[in-house]
Amino acid sequence: MGGATDTLSGRDSIADYFRRGLQRFPNLRFDPISVSEGPRTTVIEYMRHNVGNAETTVELLETDDDGLIVHSRVYHRSGLGNDS
């Protein structure tokens, strides 16, 4: 929703980031597929829907000892056809 180099710090700034993104893309919605956890990592797979488009997305979140996200990688797979 933002850019490849966005850095966010704090709950309020993260919430504001998503609010702005949803204002820009009001038809955007996410349907969870799976969540996996390991030592200091969480992997979330979901279907990202926008107008006429569906895209499988996987996020890899790396956390510190306190469970706070220190790094995130996002992988997209597009071209899955029309959103129905």
Descriptive labels:
four-stranded antiparallel β-sheet, alpha+beta, single chain, 4 strands
Give a verbal description of the structure.
There is one protein chain. It contains 1 helix and 4 strands, in the order αββββ. It is an alpha+beta fold and 84 residues long. The chain has a domain at 27-84. A 4-stranded antiparallel β-sheet has the order 1-2-3-4, with no helix packed on it. A hairpin with a 2-residue loop joins strand 1 and strand 2. The chain is flat, with a radius of gyration of 14 Å. The model is unreliable at 79-84 (pLDDT under 50).
**Strand residue percentage:** over 45%
SSE order: HEEEE
Average pLDDT across residues?
A: 78
Tally of DSSP β-strands: 4
Terminal CA distance reads 22 Å
What best-fitting shape do the alpha-carbon axes yield? flat
Determine Rg (CA atoms, Å). Answer: 14 Å
Low-confidence stretches: 79-84
What topology, given as strand order, has the largest sheet?
A: 1-2-3-4
Count of alpha and pi helical runs:
1
Main sheet makeup: 4 strands, antiparallel
Helix percentage range: 10-25%
- Give me the secondary-structure category: alpha+beta
Any chance you could write out the topology, listing elements then pairs?
Blueprint: H1 11-24, E1 29-38, E2 41-50, E3 53-63, E4 69-77
Antiparallel strand pairs: 1-2, 2-3, 3-4
